[in-house]
Amino acid sequence: MGKVTGFMEYERLEEGYEPVEARLKNYKEFVIGLNVEQAKQQGARCMDCGTPFCNSGCPVNNIIPDFNDLVYRGGDADWKSAIAVLHSTNNFPEFTGRICPAPCEAACTLNVNDDAVGIKSIEHAIIDRAWAEGWVPPRPARVKTGKTVAVVGSGPAGLAAAQQLARAGHSVTVFEKNDRVGGLLRYGIPDFKMEKSHIDRRVQQMEAEGVVFRTGVMVAHLPEGSKVTNWAKDVVTAEELTEKFDAVLLAGGAEQSRDLPVPGRDLAGVHFAMEFLPQQNKVNAGDKLKNQLRADGKHVIVIGGGDTGSDCVGTSNRHGAKSVTQFELMPQPPEVEDRPLTWPYWPIKLRTSSSHEEGCEREFAIATKEFLGEKGKVTGVKTVRVEWSNGKMVEVAGSEQILKADLVLLAMGFVSPVASIIDAFGVTKDARGNAKATTDFNGGYKTNAAKVFVAGDMRRGQSLVVWAIREGRQAARSIDEFLMGESALPR
């Protein structure tokens, strides 16, 4: 694929970033994508490697060598074919081309002893050019089936399923508890990583394909005192949906944040990341919000070393935080992975995000003992260094210290979907609190409850956008087969 000797002639070319001082002034995307010639050169690096491990490394099984080769060929017709190949496995490459961690690149054969092909940057270039050239038209079904499907949740799993089912001819209604479509894409991922115009453009396409969106509608209920973002104005019961629709797909996110029950947790200024991040996205959308959580002039402690924590770092810096420190319980991983040992699997290595580069102190192997405060407000965090032995955490004697903190953001991941929604439909849960269903070819994604299917975080727990798209697509096929006895939708 690509140019036979391309991987020897060309080096990996990274996408560019706008300067830190410029991008901290706003919430706009700042990645500078590859132009046509740069993408062609990157596509030339794709090897004729026999077994394309990138395909299996990609959760949606993108046909990567094919679109790399088409981009390398470079004609307009080739680029149009490239977006057709990309869309054959992925409904929303503009999402994954921006926020996917690219496990496909970890699995690239070239990554064994060189830098991987820039697959994600090529995907980004393909879909952005496709939108610019008008190559992404609506594809409404030619024949309607008369069957109705309710999709609960408008994140990537729900959107992917809804689009597939609408194109199969079913009448699809998507229910979203918040005021805009997108789920955690909309109110979890900061705008500087993915501007929400990309979601709006897909919603317009899907509406032209017949999908109906009902925003501000809570399906079932949230527990009293829940911290899950909920801007719903109406409520629909589980019974109403199962009576009115021929099938129901539960596709909500894993929004139940992991808590940190240490002394001082109830102090003002200690919040879940998912209280903090959605508010800024809502303000960016033009809404006014009273008492917004902000980091202006504050010493911010972010507890949790993953992507959500990184998002808190980037948002705090844009607010004008006085300092930002991020905690990670695990020891600092190596800067370079042992490729012969880990390839083609996802390696554990130190990952420095663009938000970290904007200003952040990172602390590894550190645990929080207590939140300290005065007059009911947090003023500091008491910590201790930890070591790991035989998989067990041991505190390092004499290593306790106190760090100043005016705002603490808990970004330690998510334990499960909201249980009350799953319970309202009578769906059995697994040991981790997720809705129980298999991914089998026959009968996959179907729950124990009649007519009720489940996909994405609701079934697998906290995961990647690309996994949500995969599950939404596969669940759509199962629902189509359930309704019609057979399905022509791809799996």
TrEMBL record:
The lineage of its organism: Bacteria, Pseudomonadati, Pseudomonadota, Betaproteobacteria, Burkholderiales. Pathway: Amino-acid biosynthesis. One of its GO terms (biological process) is glutamate biosynthetic process. The gene is gltD. One of its GO terms (molecular function) is iron-sulfur cluster binding. SUPFAM superfamilies: alpha-helical ferredoxin, FAD/NAD(P)-binding domain, Nucleotide-binding domain. NCBIfam families: GOGAT_sm_gam. Its EC number is 1.4.1.13. The keyword RNA-binding does not apply. Residues 24-134 form the Dihydroprymidine dehydrogenase domain. Residues 148-472 form the FAD/NAD(P)-binding domain. This is Glutamate synthase. Keywords: Amino-acid biosynthesis, Glutamate biosynthesis, Oxidoreductase. The keyword Phosphoprotein does not apply. InterPro entries: DPD_II (IPR028261), FAD/NAD-bd_sf (IPR036188), FAD/NAD-binding_dom (IPR023753), Glut_synth_ssu1 (IPR006005), Glutamate_Synthase (IPR051394), Helical_ferredxn (IPR009051).
